[in-house]
Design brief:
single chain; alpha/beta; Rossmann fold; eight-stranded mixed beta sheet; five-stranded parallel beta sheet; 35% helix; binds flavin mononucleotide
Length: 403
C-alpha cells in the first residue's frame, strides 16, 4: 500500500515521524510531503532517513522528488502513485484549503489531483479547533467522505487544556492501514444499488413522488466503488451528481426501476436497495392533462410491484440489503421486513425528524440475518455506507461459516 503522508506546520509535526515509522511497520510505502510551515518545525531529513525516500517540499522544484517519479508534473504523478492520502498534523489552514479547493503548494495541489481515500488527523489550539470556520471545514470534508481522526483532549503546547491534541501516531496509523485494507475488499464484486425516489405519473405533467433525495444510495455507490467494486446505480430522478466510475441507469417509475434491476440481477453479487420506491401508482393515467374544474377529483391507485420481495425470491447466494424507513418501532419493523422479504440485512432508519431523507447525515440500525441488531451512531451518509459494507462482509463470512 502506497501512502502519501502530508505533514502540516504545527507543533505536532514531530509526531508525524513516529507515524511514518508505524505506517512502514504496517507494510506501507510512505512518500512524505511537507508544507513550508512544517519545515519550520522538523527538517525533511528526519523523514527522508525514516522512509528512505526523498521528501517532497516544493511544488516547483522537480529535483525534489523520488527518482522513480520521472514526470515533470510531479503532483499528478504522486497523486496517481499513492492509494491513500493521509495528513498529520492537519493544520487549521490545511483543513480550510482542502475544504475550499485551494491549491497553492504541493500538498494542496496533490490533494485536488487525488481520487482515493483521504484521512486527516487535525491538531491545533482548542479555540482554533472549535472555531465555527474550522467546524464548517471539518463538516465539509467529512461530507466529502474523508475520514477525520479526531484530536484528543489534553494539555496543549500553547498552555491550554482541551480538544486539539493530535491523536496518537498508533491510532492514526491504524486508521490509515484499515482504510487501505478496505480499499480493495470489494474487488471482484458487482454491487447493484438503487437510489432516489420514483415518479408515478398522474397525467402527462403531474406525478406522485416522495421526499427521497438519493443521497444515501449515492453514498453507497461511492463507497462500493472506492472499495474496488464494479457499481451499477439504478437511480430515480435526483438532483445530485453520480459518483465517478459507476454505471448510471436513470429510471423514473417503479415499473422502470423493477425492469432495470431485474435486467441486471445476473451481474450482481451484492444488491443494495436504498431507493424509496412508490408503493402505489395511478391505475390508468390519462394521456391528456387533467383539466382543472370545480369538481372533486378522485385518483385510483394500484400497488406497485414489490421489487424487494421479488429480489428476495430470486437472490440465490447474492447478498441482499434492503432499507426500511419507519416512523416508529424501528428495530421490530427492520427485523420483520428482513424475514418477510428474505433479505440478509435491513438498514432501518427513523424518518420524520431532522435526519433521514434530505439530510447529509443519518443514524441507522442494521438488522442482520444472524438475528443481530447493530446500531450505527449519527454520521455522514458516506461513513454509514462504509459501515453497511463492513457489516455486510462480516455477515457473509458468518453465513458461510454456518453452512
Ligand atoms: C509555534 C507555532 C505553532 C503552531 N501550531 C499550530 C498547530 O498546532 N495547528 C495549526 O493548525 N496551526 C499551527 N500554527 C499555525 C500554522 O503554522 C500556520 O497556520 C501555517 O500557515 C500553516 O501552514 P500549513 O498549513 O501550510 O502547514 C502554529 C504556528 C506557530 C508559529
Amino acid at each position: 500500500m502506497n501512502v502519501l503522508l502530508g505533514v502540516g506546520g504545527g507543533i505536532a509535526a514531530y509526531k508525524a515521524a513516529e507515524l511514518a515509522r508505524a505506517l512502514m511497520e504496517g507494510g506501507a510505502r510512505v512518500q512524505v510531503v511537507m508544507t513550508a510551515a512544517a519545515q519550520e518545525f522538523v527538517r525533511p531529513l528526519t523523514f527522508a532517513a525514516l522512509t528512505g525516500r526523498k521528501v517532497i517540499t516544493d511544488l516547483f522544484s522537480s529535483a525534489s522528488g523520488d527518482a522513480t517519479l520521472s514526470s515533470a508534473v510531479e503532483h499528478i504523478a504522486v497523486a496517481q502513485e499513492n492509494g491513500l492520502f493521509a495528513v498529520a498534523p492537519a493544520t487549521a489552514d490545511l483543513l480550510a484549503k482542502f475544504a475550499n479547493g485551494l491549491a497553492d503548494d504541493f500538498l494542496t495541489t496533490a490533494y485536488l489531483a487525488f481520487t482515493g481515500p483521504v484521512i486527516l488527523a487535525p491538531a491545533m489550539n482548542t479555540n482554533m479547533w472549535l472555531h465555527p470556520a474550522t467546524r464548517e471545514n471539518v463538516k465539509r470534508l467529512r461530507d466529502r467522505g474523508h475520514r477525520i481522526v479526531e484530536p484528543e483532549e489534553g494539555y496543549l503546547a500553547c498552555g491550554m487544556t482541551g480538544a486539539g491534541r493530535l491523536a496518537s501516531p498508533d491510532a492514526i496509523a491504524r486508521a490509515v492501514l484499515a482504510e487501505g485494507n478496505r480499499r480493495s475488499d470489494l474487488e471482484g464484486e458487482t454491487v447493484l444499488v438503487t437510489a432516489g425516489p420514483t415518479q408515478e405519473p398522474i397525467d402527462p405533467v403531474r406525478y406522485l413522488t416522495n421526499r427521497s433525495s438519493g443521497k444515501m444510495g449515492y453514498a453507497i455507490a461511492e463507497a462500493a466503488r472506492a472499495r474496488g467494486a464494479r457499481v451499477i446505480l439504478v437511480s430515480g430522478p435526483v438532483h445530485i451528481q453520480a459518483p465517478r466510475d459507476v454505471t448510471l441507469v436513470p429510471v423514473r417509475t417503479a415499473n422502470e426501476m423493477r425492469a432495470a434491476v431485474l435486467d441486471r440481477l445476473d451481474k450482481a453479487t451484492i444488491i443494495v436497495k436504498s431507493a424509496a420506491v412508490a408503493d402505489f401508482h395511478v391505475s390508468r393515467p390519462p394521456e391528456q392533462k387533467i383539466k382543472k374544474t370545480a369538481a372533486r377529483l378522485t385518483l385510483e391507485l394500484d400497488p406497485t410491484p414489490d421489487i424487494l420481495s421479488e429480489l428476495g425470491r430470486r437472490k440465490g447466494d447474492r447478498l441482499l440489503i434492503g432499507f426500511a424507513a419507519e416512523t416508529e418501532n424501528l428495530n421490530r419493523e427492520a427485523h420483520r421486513k428482513l424475514e418477510t422479504k428474505n433479505c440478509d440485512m435491513i438498514v432501518g432508519n427513523l424518518v420524520g425528524g431532522a435526519l433521514g431523507f434530505d439530510s447529509d447525515e443519518n443514524e441507522v440500525v442494521l438488522a442482520l440475518r444472524t438475528g443481530e441488531t447493530v446500531p450505527v451512531e449519527r454520521a455522514s451518509k458516506r461513513a454509514i455506507a462504509d459501515r453497511i459494507f463492513d457489516e455486510a462482509l462480516r455477515l457473509r463470512q458468518a453465513l458461510h461459516a454456518r453452512q
